[in-house]
Amino acid sequence: MNPPELIDRALELLLAKDMAAFAGLFAEDGVIEFPFAPPGYPPRVEGRTAITAYMRGYPDLLDIREFTEQTVHRTVDPEVVVAEFEAAGRVVATGRPYRMRYIAVLTVRDGEIHHYRDYWNPLAAAEMMGGAQELNAAFAHESGGGHE
């Protein structure tokens, strides 16, 4: 898969709540980074096995029902793309609406994600989750969370 196709597939799998298949899109040594990670939140998850564990509880936290305003920007490096999208759904524990805008920078090689840098707003996420403690408790439950 080329990078835009891989992003489409990743979002489809998140909507389907198939976290194992989502993690399977990553290279064995793939990395997810969270440059805006708040204290207590993992700034980096390394390796497909760790990504699988990290993503396992995601559907128990967020019920994402759609991705809107999806745009993929190609860069001068054919292996790197920038994806912009908005996730919409609800917070499972509270039933509160969830709407978050994301920007992700992906490096894709040989049809696999090698590096995924996820720029999201932890302050907005904390507000939707019911507070900073709830955000950290939800996403840092097992050696590194459950956030996409």
**Largest sheet composition:** 6 strands, mixed
Q: What would the principal axes of the Cα set say about the shape?
A: globular
CATH topology term: Nuclear Transport Factor 2, Chain: A
Name the helix and strand elements from N-terminus to C-terminus, one letter apiece.
HHEEHHEEEEHH
Low-confidence stretches: 141-148
Number of helices: 6
Strand content: 35-45%
The domain tally reads 1
Structural class, from helix and strand content? Answer: alpha+beta
Q: Give a count of the beta strands, DSSP E runs of length 2 or more.
A: 6
Helix content: 25-40%
Q: Give me the side-by-side strand order of the main sheet.
A: 2-1-6-5-4-3
Key phrases:
148 residues; alpha+beta; 6 helices
Characterization of the model:
By secondary structure, the protein is of the alpha+beta class. It has one domain (3-139): Nuclear Transport Factor 2, Chain: A. The chain has helices at residues 3-16, 19-23, 48-55, 58-61, 122-129, 132-139, and strands at residues 26-33, 44-46, 62-74, 80-91, 97-109, 112-119. It has a six-stranded mixed β-sheet with strand order 2-1-6-5-4-3. A hairpin with a 2-residue loop joins strand 5 (97-109) and strand 6 (112-119). The longest helix has 14 residues, at 3-16. It starts with a helix and ends in a 9-residue tail after the last helix.
